[in-house]
From TrEMBL:
Keyword flag Transmembrane: yes
Any Pfam family: SNF
Family annotation (InterPro entries): Na/ntran_symport, SNS_sf, YocR/YhdH-like
Protein name: Transporter
Topological category with respect to the lipid bilayer: Multi-pass membrane protein
GO molecular function: symporter activity
């Protein structure tokens, strides 16, 4: 049986609180900003199908495993892995999973905060009426002005890091839980409003075909790797964020049910975002492969033309900020928990230290859109490189280790007790984490390496 360990950082008040927080972590810029733009860059339908497949056969079993490890270890990922490895009589080397998560946390949040800063600045533009009756061309110019200005971006990046670390410093119950209760449902409703608008935009069917007609000639090996990486990114997997949230999970909650709820909510939000954005792209003859600016260039056109657009536009960008906020908190939580546990810092101090480091790193992303835009490594700007390295390499490798540990290194009696599954359900999970997930990740990786 599981021994009663408690997290020194607190516990969620209920199953519902965990589901909300994990959904808050999962649903974020990844769904609304990134999913549409990488789908656009990778040709649409076939990419979406591979992504959905990755969510189902890799994302779901890894999420169950990651929550399970967290709840069993009840500490920051680094210390959880140390404790669990010892308990199972395995090498302390498994801790590397925790360390790579800490590094990924810093790197991911450093660019995530800059993009969230864009969303913050769009709240101000929206409320000021900048988007009223705007043309697609003008909308592109406004976005261009924002990213070419380092000072302005730095300002919003600083503000976003400030509000993130403020909540993190207040801790699990006070800070994290309260922030997500209302916002997730509101965001969902607003996305439905946008899809409703897109239905009448004149480009709806074209958008739907783009998203759901799978033409496999359009997808490359790199596209498959990006779809796999995005499955991890969007579900917050592979770097300890979901593990640490699992460590605050009460003992009596079903991990399987919670996982399905979060994965379905996350996927639905991404698909809704796609269905809101691509019709507008086609109705206005915009470019689906426009890159990271895609939603910032297209959505203002929709808000500018719809009745009540000032209100809906403002609300949308506010909610986008909140979605990013609740994700950002979870990206840095493993780092903060570790600093508290192992470096003896207070929560407040740990938040300040990690926030400052991330803020500094974020400056590189800010500059990669302007002053350093010509600075390229492997043909990628700093922002692209950070995103590629973390999302497509570090997260899948982290996920691979999680699957291997949960599937092979842990005793069956331990994982079965934690997951609380019936025999047949447990078998399916075990086959997935033992064989399907590792093979899928390795095949995608090897294919990719061959190409280089
Ligand atoms: N899942 C978040 C999103 O889609 C991003 C994230 C990545 C959060 C990794 C935590 C860990 O925006």
């Amino acid at each position: 049986m599981v021994e009663a360990r408690n997290s020194i950082h607190g516990q969620w008040s209920s199953r519902w609180a965990f589901v909300l927080a994990a959904t808050g972590s999962a649903v974020g810029l990844g769904n609304i900003w990134k999913f549409p733009y990488i789908t656009g860059e990778n040709g649409g339908g076939a990419f979406v199908l591979v992504y959905l497949l990755c969510i189902a056969v890799v994302g779901v079993p890894v999420m169950m495993s990651e929550i399970m490890l967290g709840r069993r270890g009840r500490q920051s990922p680094i210390n959880t892995m140390r404790t669990l490895a010892r308990e199972e009589g395995r090498s302390g080397g498994w801790q590397i999973l925790g360390f790579s998560g800490v590094l990924a946390g810093f790197l991911i949040l450093s660019f995530y905060s800059v993009i969230a800063g864009w969303a913050l600045s769009y709240v101000v533009s929206a409320v000021g009426g900048t988007f009223t009756a705007i043309t697609a061309e003008r909308s592109g110019e406004i976005f261009g002005e924002l990213v070419s200005n380092p000072g302005v971006q730095l300002f919003w990046h600083t503000l976003f890091m400030g509000i993130t670390m403020f909540v993190v410093a207040r801790g699990v119950r006070e800070g994290l839980e309260r922030a997500v209760r209302l916002l997730m449902p509101a965001l969902f409703v607003l996305l439905l409003v946008l899809v409703g608008y897109a239905m009448n935009s004149g480009g709806f069917m074209q958008g739907v075909h783009f998203l759901f007609d799978a033409d496999f000639s359009k997808i490359t090996t790199d596209g498959v790797l990006i779809a796999l990486g995005h499955a991890f990114f969007t579900l917050s997997l592979g770097m300890g964020a979901i593990m640490i949230y699992g460590s605050y999970l009460p003992e009596n909650v079903s991990i399987t049910q919670a996982t399905f709820t979060v994965a379905i909510a996350d996927t639905v939000v991404a698909l809704l975002a796609g269905m809101a954005i691509f019709p507008i792209v086609f109705a206005n003859s915009l470019e689906p492969g426009a890159g990271p600016g895609l939603i910032f260039q297209t959505l203002p056109v929709a808000f500018g033309a719809m009745p009540g657009g000032l209100f809906f536009g403002t609300l949308f960008f506010i909610l986008l900020v909140f979605a990013a906020w609740s994700s950002a908190i979870s990206i840095i939580e493993p780092v903060v928990a570790w600093l508290v546990e192992s470096r003896g810092m207070s929560r407040k101090r740990a938040s300040i230290v990690s926030g400052l480091i991330t803020w500094l790193l974020g400056i590189a992303t800010v500059l990669s859109f302007n002053l350093w835009s010509e600075l390229k490594l492997f043909d990628k700007t700093i922002f692209d490189l950070l995103d590629y390295l973390t999302t497509n390499i570090m997260l899948p490798l982290g996920g691979l280790m999680i699957a291997l540990f949960a599937g092979w290194a842990m005793k069956n009696s331990h994982s079965m007790g934690e997951l609380g599954l019936k025999r047949s359900g447990y078998k399916i999970w075990q086959i997935l984490v033992r064989y399907v997930t590792p093979v899928a990740i390795l095949v995608v990786f090897l294919n990719k390496i061959e190409l280089i």
